[in-house]
Amino acid sequence: MATLELSVSEDVIVASVQRTRRLGPLFWTATGWMIFVFAVAILAPVLPLPSPTDMDMLERRAPVSALHWLGTDGLGRDELSRLVYGARISLTVGLFAPVIGITIGGALGLLAGYFRGRFETLVVGSMDTLLAFPPLILALAVTAYLGQSIFNLTCILGVLGIPAFMRVARASTLTLARREFVIAAQALGASHARILLRELLPNVALPLVAFFLLGVAVTIVVEGALSFLGLGVPPPISSWGSMIGEGRESLEIAPQLAFIPAIAMFLTVLSFNLVGDTLRALTDPRQGAL
Amino acid sequence: MFAFIARRLLYLLPVLIAVSLLTFLIASLLPGDLAYVILGDQATPEKVEALRQDMGLDQPVWWRYLGWLGHVLQGDFGRSFRTGQTVLQAVAERLPVSFELMLLAEIAALAIGIPLAIACAVKSGTAFDRFMTGSAFGMLSVPTFLSAILLIYLFAVQLHWLPATGYVPFSEDPIGNLRCFVLPALTLALGEWPVLMRVLRSDMIATLQEDFIAMARAKGLKPSRILLVHALKPSSLTLVTVTGINIGRLIGGTVIVEQIFALPGIGRLLVGAITTRDLIILQGVVLVVAFGYVLMNFIVDMLYAVLDPRIRHGHA
Q: Hey, of A16, A20, A140, which one would you mutate to test binding to chain B, going by the most B CBs within 10 A of its CB?
């Protein structure tokens, strides 16, 4: 369903066209934060952090101290360390799920937009069916059957992302396939595979990558929501979502336990949205789309 | 128009069939045999086998699907093996709560979004406009469950103005009922207003540059009258559609919000069915919600066609 694409041109041109192609300080701050979070998440085992699972029952909900930089949680576990290890989970799911989406969805969209015909009808039809389910509910239902694990969660969220990536890839392929350089390649006798990989793919890749970043933001949020409900990653592991969920229990006595991971998640999602949206606008040929 | 509706309805049929098939397959192909779930861990293989035969689980999948579909078409979605309640009863009991939540959320989102959009359109390009557009973008990055705990912390924990969780039926205590819905509806509205504001703002800026607005100004009409009477109506076509689409999107949001605020709606029924592994209820609820979602999208498509004749005639 929802076959009608709403081309919501977000902002009517306010700034002059010349000014629009420069990336502001906000863009670089967001990029910096993304790199920082990634670096910390990857380097977590090397960093001088206490174990995220060691409990210290005497130090429950301890305030900020030299030993525990962000205090401890309800079981006396180091909050900073849990935050860093939580980032690993949130980012793993947040990155790999859209990778599934961009690979399968991108390939389907490219093929559907290039070959058209029955194949396109079939692909678009089946994607519409997938879109007919409210995504969160489908994710909940499938995790309930498959069982909760990081791998399952990544796969489900990845599959749910396929239709959106398919649409983006198909839309750009449809316009590109009629351009002169593709016709020229066809006239030169290039094979379908060559046209798809050498002519179309590099051009379709740009909007797809921009969309990928937005996809990461959405996935981090959905994973967070599932884990927050206790239906995401299984208990001993903690992602930002499950930390916020646990922190909610002690909102009255120790609100920081919910708010620290919440801030981390918000900043990360905002950064991905900001960078993704800027790149999307840059790759959008419409004037003043930025 | 009728030909258009008929064509769209015809298109709806395969989607609905596919939705029902997918719902059924999720429930039957994935690991976790229903018979084991019902009998528990102590089940002997003989007992499981007997129950499987009794429930028809030994039949081929396509046969079971047709049988199930036949029951569904007669309005029999099955019965929970835990509570004995039929799926339809359970859904009918919970649906009004979810509807009330979605309705109040959408009203709140419009109440925040429309005035801000008008203000931004009037002052477009100023610091106020840039600040509000920026905030709207930032709000889009706040997940529902984050705004939920923020609101609970502010209004329930710190100020003690509103209950954090709980539910009172409207028939028993109308005021108390509405008080229960304030925070949940506001939570959903916080995620919705940026979308509505952005859409209306850009349409409104375009409308304000039209000749008839200049004409109205030249006639000396009051600015408030120009904005609310002359400019708002032609600018709100996209807003209407987006509002409709959002109601569909809200169905997912209500699951989280109902869970956080302990409202007995469809979402809680679903999460409850998942945690107790009540597969019949789960299957039924997913099917009902997906059907509702498809129908909602269909209505939005129709509404869009009513508003924009180009789509009706296939030119879009």
A: A140
Q: Across residues B236-258, what is the average pLDDT?
A: 77
Continuous segment of H or E residues that includes residue A100: helix A79-100
- Global confidence as pTM: 0.80
Amino acid, single-letter form, for residue A189: G
Distance from CA of A224 to the nearest CA of B (A): 8
Tokens of A270: 């905002």
A32-43 confidence digits (pLDDT tens): 999 998 888 888
* % of chain A surpassing 90 pLDDT: 12
Q: What is the ipTM of this complex?
A: 0.76
The overall longest dimension of chain B from CA atoms, in Å, is 88
The radius of gyration of chain B from alpha carbons, rounded to an integer in Å, stands at 24
Report the number of secondary-structure helices (H) and strands (E) in chain B: 15, 0
- Helices B266-275, A135-146: axis angle to 10 degrees equals 10
Nearest in space to B200 (alpha carbons), one of B124, B139, B308, B101: B124
- Does residue A188 sit at the B interface (CB-CB below 8 Å)? no
| Minimal C-alpha gap between A212 and chain B (Å) | 16
Contact B15, A128 (CB under 8 A): yes
Q: Cα distance from B191 to chain A (closest Cα, Å)?
A: 12
| Interchain proximity A145–B300, CB inside 8 Å | no
Check B242 against A6: CB less than 8 A apart: yes
CB pairs under 8 A between A and B: 151
Written as one letter, the residue type at A83 is: L
CA pair distance B248, B16, nearest whole angstrom: 16
Residue A76 has a pLDDT of: 65
One-letter identity of residue B47? K
Q: How many CB atoms lie within 10 A of CB B305?
A: 19
Closest CB to B256: pick one of A225, A266, A273: A225
Name the 3-class secondary structure at B81. Answer: coil
pLDDT single digits (tens) B211-233: 888 888 888 888 888 888 788 87
CB B97 within 8 A of CB B263: yes
More confident residue, B39 or B262: B262
- What DSSP string describes A154-217? HHHHHHHHHHHHHHHHHHHHHHHTTSHHHHHHHHTT--HHHIIIIIIHHHHHHHHHHHHHHHHH
Looking at chain B, which residue has its C-alpha nearest residue A125?
Answer: B15
Q: How far apart are CA B133 and CA B127, in angstroms?
A: 10
Q: Strand, coil or helix: what is A73?
A: coil
Q: Are the C-beta atoms of B99 and B297 separated by less than 8 Å?
A: no
Beta strands in chain B (DSSP E): none
H or E stretch covering A244: helix A240-249
Query: With contacts defined as CB-CB under 8 Å, which chain A residues touch B277?
Result: 144
